Amino acid sequence: MLSIQRRDPKEAHLECIPNLLPCRIHHDGPVNASRRYWAPEQDKDGNLEAYFRGRKLKGREVKLPDGYRGAVVKKGTKEDDAPKKNAERLKRRQLEDEDVDDDENDEEVQVMEEVADFKEFIIWGHEAVADRDDAFVKGIEEWMGFAAAMHAPGIEVQNEQKSGT
Question: Is pLDDT of 115 > 80?
Answer without folding.
Answer: yes
